[in-house]
Amino acid sequence: AFHWSSRKPMRVLITGAAGQIGYAIVAMAANGDMLGQDQPVILHLLDIEPAKQALQGVKMELMDAAYPLLVDVVATTDLQEACAGVEVAVMVGGFPRKAGMERKDVMAKNVSIYAQQARALEAHASRDVKILVIANPANTNALMLKEHAPSIPAENITALTRLDHNRALAQIAARAGTHVSNVRNVIIWGNHSSTQFPDVAHGTVDGRPIREVLRGEEDAAWLDGEFVETVQQRGAAVIKARGLSSAMSAASSACDHIHDWFNGTAPGKWVSMGVYGDGSYGQPAGLIYSYPVTCQHGKWKIVQGLEIDSHCAAKLKASADELLEERELALACISEAAAAAQ
Ligand code: NAD
Ligand code: LMR
């Protein structure tokens, strides 16, 4: 197909594409927000049988929107067809949390999906496919995907905590009375759950340390208390307000995650990503854990050498402990599901 850009189109898989986040993210991906304004895309949309008709509706709307960067749309309920040749996979498919549930309550429903889809990605996706898991429990789904796709490099499998990161930036900006783009280098440590630790110790507002800009007694108490809780509980607050979990902000943050991964982070800037841990900052290796990272040439690197005080260290460990517990639960769910299927 003719296109003004000389670049080869990239195939991007979006699972759960007929759902809420799907509806927002397909538009952003087709508009260049995910891979850049000069990168044509072919969108592979996957959903399950009951959503087949709705999925065709999404395809119709993508055609109707006449996006210049959108070369083709494959809308399917066939997992193999969906995974064929994809270079980016955004894993949204699954069941969302409802009011009153913790994210790990959706575990049994979602982890088995990730084990199955891992095998399909391994067999049919591009050898260097880069994967972002959004569906909850995001870190543990990503880990199960990794465990069931041994030939996909572990560094290619990530989970979304950029939404939490952006939420933290927005809260600091509002408190400091500045625009969100002037706030940098907050960190989300750990799990995309209420044990995550939003850390401002190394962040800046207009180039000055956050704790210097927000330094009054009230501001300090806010940073140590309400700010942390607000970020940890923001997903639940959105569910309460909308009656549905966050979708547009999740989609937008997912585009930020992939955009920075492929195109790099600006010098001196870092972002939070759930990545396969190597033991950095004393956290157990082999978990998908959110760390501060920089990206260059399509690879992320954990920011090293940050000073961690004992309060922060305890928070990091608590989130790692939760992830270890989730891992056990997830493995048990997967073997139960496998036994039931026999
Ligand atoms: P949704 O219910 O609107 O959409 C999910 C879609 O996934 C549905 O269309 C469903 O049919 C589809 N689906 C279910 N099983 C599937 C499978 N095996 N293969 C392919 N598709 C499948 O939910 P949503 O609001 O779009 O949320 C999706 C997920 O993202 C939920 O797990 C939610 O909790 C999570 N979430 C994560 C973050 C984050 O920051 N990590 C933010 C928001 C939402
Ligand atoms: C979010 O953070 O908004 C999502 O993970 C949805 C949820 O269950 O909180």
TrEMBL record:
E.C. number? 1.1.1.37
What EC class does the entry list? oxidoreductase
**PROSITE patterns the UniProt entry points to:** MDH
Q: What is the reaction catalyzed?
A: (S)-malate + NAD(+) = oxaloacetate + NADH + H(+)
Tell me the InterPro entries matching this sequence: L-lactate/malate_DH (IPR001557), Lactate/malate_DH_C (IPR022383), Lactate/malate_DH_N (IPR001236), Lactate_DH/Glyco_Ohase_4_C (IPR015955), Malate_DH_AS (IPR001252), Malate_DH_NAD-dep_euk (IPR011274), Malate_DH_type2 (IPR010945), NAD(P)-bd_dom_sf (IPR036291)
Query: What does the UniProt keyword field contain?
Result: NAD, Oxidoreductase, Tricarboxylic acid cycle
Task: Give residue ranges for domain Lactate/malate dehydrogenase N-terminal.
Answer: 10-157
What region holds the Lactate/malate dehydrogenase C-terminal domain? 161-331
Record bears the keyword Isomerase:
no
Q: Which family does it belong to?
A: Belongs to the LDH/MDH superfamily. MDH type 2 family.
Can you say what this protein is called?
Malate dehydrogenase
Phylogenetic classification of the source organism:
Eukaryota, Viridiplantae, Chlorophyta, core chlorophytes, Chlorophyceae
